[in-house]
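Quiz preparation item.
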């Protein structure tokens, strides 16, 4: 459920008409709903809390899905932690008021500088993804007299996820170490006075709509915990990652959080361990839309009809990158027959096609449309390709709204470049 609803013939976000935001801020723009963010977080938390054997898991929201400071602060106030993958994300989580004790730090390639930053910030847990990284952390910790809590990220070799580019848990990809290697590294870390291994982690993919692969992975993780404990090693944390899918309209409906929690209870319940989950999309996707204006409708004599929007692949790259489907809804639908459109942006690439042959109500120049389910992996993946200023973001709460990232002016955009001294006008031509 989300708080983007049609009322009085147009689409609203909570108590604010999207058309009013488009007028005030200009298009394209992202709009997020506080009530939806909060609801999704609470539904996830309450689903887990319904199973006492799961304890009180840490819900470390995956910052990568939507890292706007206002989004993070909204979730942080409800008690969410943060799953981060870079110094920038740790800084964002801290700036949004999420305490270090609720921040976990994962990622395949953490630099020494980033690890030092995480150590000094005192994050709750560093998810180690390889032996070289474990050795680097030990050296850095020793130099600072820290003894960091770490978990070993396991690649359990279970394939899952909505698209090959977002599947992370199979053997051939770059994430984590094998189950056997995890056992070896855990024992190695436990013998090292500079390190404090506290648990193990996995994350097998994103946009997962079937619980079976998650159950398989969780079960392998449980067995790993039991094997480590049988060797006399202390294992007190199990981080089970994110990945739960959302309904994008063209895919099988994902299981509700309640079923996900029931599965987790069945597989890892009663393990007497502190659990962590890292949901991103499940919290943010349906809490955001991308609003865009129709520049014009271009009817080709041979029959194709292009809906040319002022949003492009640089604002929402998911269709170009993953063939992702986003529902497109006119904000003030006109009466009339439905018909097929190829929906495109102005960027100079054929890939800047959001969808082909999408059947929509009649649309004309100046009309507004909303790309639904764009709150996760939308604005965070935006760029200024084709020198299009970075898309702005607005957060709505009830009848209030705020621009939480303004659109940069052209002066600001150009001002980030500088002209090499030998090219400046005063240097003259040679
Ligand atoms: N934890 C780790 C270690 C991750 O790598 C990810 C996502 C998550 C948690 C959150 O997964 P979620 O609950 O959101 O599925 N840009 C792609 C998705 C990439 C996901 C990367 N990792 C997309 O637009 O579909």
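Solution:
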């Amino acid at each position: 459920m989300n708080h983007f609803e049609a009322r009085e013939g147009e689409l609203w976000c909570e108590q604010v008409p999207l058309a009013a935001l488009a007028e005030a801020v200009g298009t394209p723009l992202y709009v997020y709903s506080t009530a939806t963010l909060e609801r999704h977080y609470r539904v996830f938390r309450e689903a887990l809390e319904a199973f006492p054997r799961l304890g009180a898991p840490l819900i470390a929201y995956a910052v990568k899905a939507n890292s706007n400071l206002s989004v993070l602060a909204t979730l942080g106030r409800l008690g969410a932690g943060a799953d981060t993958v870079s110094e920038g994300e740790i800084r964002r989580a801290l700036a949004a008021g999420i305490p270090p004790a609720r921040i976990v730090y994962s990622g395949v390639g953490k630099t020494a500088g980033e690890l030092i930053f995480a150590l000094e910030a005192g994050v709750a847990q560093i998810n180690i993804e390889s032996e070289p990284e474990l050795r680097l952390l030990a050296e850095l910790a020793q130099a600072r007299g820290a003894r960091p809590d770490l978990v070993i990220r396991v690649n359990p070799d279970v394939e899952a996820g909505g698209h090959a580019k977002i599947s992370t848990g199979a053997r051939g990809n770059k994430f984590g170490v094998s189950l056997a290697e995890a056992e070896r590294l855990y024992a190695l870390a436990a013998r090292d006075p500079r390190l404090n291994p506290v648990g193990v982690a996995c994350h097998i993919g994103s946009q997962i709509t079937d619980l079976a692969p998650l159950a398989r992975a969780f079960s392998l993780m449980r067995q790993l915990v039991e094997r480590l404990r049988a060797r006399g090693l202390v294992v007190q944390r199990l981080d089970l990652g994110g990945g739960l899918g959302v309904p994008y309209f063209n895919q099988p409906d994902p299981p509700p959080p309640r079923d996900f929690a029931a599965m987790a209870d069945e597989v890892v319940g009663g393990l007497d361990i502190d659990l962590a989950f890292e949901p991103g999309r499940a919290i943010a996707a349906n809490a955001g839309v991308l609003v865009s204006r129709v520049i014009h409708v271009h009817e080709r004599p041979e029959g194709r009809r292009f809906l040319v929007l002022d949003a492009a692949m640089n604002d929402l790259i998911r269709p170009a990158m993953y063939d992702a489907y986003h529902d497109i809804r006119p904000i003030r639908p006109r009466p009339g027959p439905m018909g097929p459109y190829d929906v495109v942006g102005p960027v100079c690439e054929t890939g800047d096609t959001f969808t082909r042959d999408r059947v929509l109500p009649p649309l004309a120049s100046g009309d507004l449309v909303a790309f639904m389910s764009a709150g996760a992996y939308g604005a965070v993946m935006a760029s200024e390709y084709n020198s299009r200023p970075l898309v702005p973001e607005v957060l709505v709460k009830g009848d209030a709204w705020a621009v939480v990232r303004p659109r940069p002016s052209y002066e600001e955009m150009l001002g980030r470049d500088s002209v090499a001294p030998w090219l400046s006008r005063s240097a003259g031509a040679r």
